[in-house]
C-alpha cells in the first residue's frame, strides 16, 4: 500500500446536464442527463490511472469536470488539499498550471494561425508574463526536443505536421508549465496503430522522467493496459471497478469489466478457439433515464432482484481491486 497522500481525491462527483425534450413547452422543467453520477477515486503521485468504458459513459465529462471546464452538480475534487470546485477564478488559475490536458484530435486542438513555437510558448507567457523572451525560447526548444520535434521546425504551422507530430506538439504545450498531472483524453484514438505506440511510449518516458501523474482515457482496453498503473471502469457515469492494471486484465471483477476484457482481440488466432466472448445483448440505457439500483443490471447476465433495489457500493476485494457488484 502506498503511504503517500493522494495528489487528487474525487468524491461523489456528479455532472448533470439539463436537457429539454424535443417539443417541450418553455415552462416545463428540463430532464437531467446524468453524465457523471457519484464518482469516487484517488490518484497517487506518479501514478497512471487508465479510464475506460463505452462511448457516452462519461469519461470526457469526468475529465472536464476535474479541470472545471464543465460545472459539477455536486461533489469534491481535492487537489493537494484544496477543493477545486469551491475555488474562485483566481484560486483555480493558480492550480491550472499544475494540471494540463491533451485531447483526441491533435490538429484541431492547435491554433492553425499560430506557429508551433507560439503555440507551445503560450501557456508559459500567460502564466508567467515576466519571463524573458530568451528564456521562453529556450524552454520551447527544450520541450520540443523532449517530445522529438526538431527545434528548427519552430516557425512552422500545425497543418505542416502529421497527426502523431501534432500530438507531440500538444504534449510539449502541456509540459512547458512543468505540471504534476496531465489528463490525456483519448490522445491516440485518432492516430494510426504504429503511431499510437510511439505516442504512448513517449508519454510513459516523460511520466517516468518527470514523476508526473497521468489520467489516460481510452475506449480501447488494450491501449490502457500498457500504460496504466490502475484502471477505472466507467458505466453510465458510475465507477463499476477500479483495479491494479495487471489484476484487472488477469481476473476482472465486475461482470461489465469481464465483458470488456473478453472482447479485447488477442494476438494469437489459435487462442480464439478457446476464448469465451461475453456479448452484452441489450442496448446501453440512456443516461436520461438510468436503471434503478445497479446501472448495469439491465445488461448483466448475473443480475438478481437486489440489483434493481440498491446501488452497490464500490468495495475493496483485496489484491488492489475495488468492485461495485452485489453478486460477484
Ligand atoms: N455539453 C453537454 N450537454 C449535454 N449532454 C452532454 C454534454 N457533454 C456530454 N453530454 C452527454 O453526457 C454523456 C457522457 O458524455 P462523454 O462525452 O463524457 O462520454 P465519453 O465516455 O467521453 O464518450 P466518448 O468515448 O464517445 O468520448 C453522453 O450521454 C453525452 O451525450
From TrEMBL:
Membrane topology term: Peripheral membrane protein
Transmembrane segments: none
SUPFAM superfamilies according to UniProt: P-loop containing nucleoside triphosphate hydrolases
Domain ABC transporter as annotated: residue spans: 10-261
Keyword line: ATP-binding, Nucleotide-binding, Transport
Family: Belongs to the ABC transporter superfamily.
GO biological process: peptide transport; transmembrane transport
Protein name as catalogued: Oligopeptide transport system ATP-binding protein
Gene Ontology cellular component annotations, sorted alphabetically: plasma membrane
Subcellular location: Cell inner membrane
GO molecular function, one term: ATP binding
Pfam families: ABC_tran (PF00005), oligo_HPY (PF08352)
InterPro entries hit by this protein: AAA+_ATPase, ABC_transp_ATP-bind, ABC_transporter-like_ATP-bd, ABC_transporter-like_CS, Oligopep_ABC_C, P-loop_NTPase
Keyword Heme applies: no
Main localization of the protein described in the UniProt heading: membrane
Classification of source organism: Bacteria, Pseudomonadati, Pseudomonadota, Alphaproteobacteria, Rhodobacterales
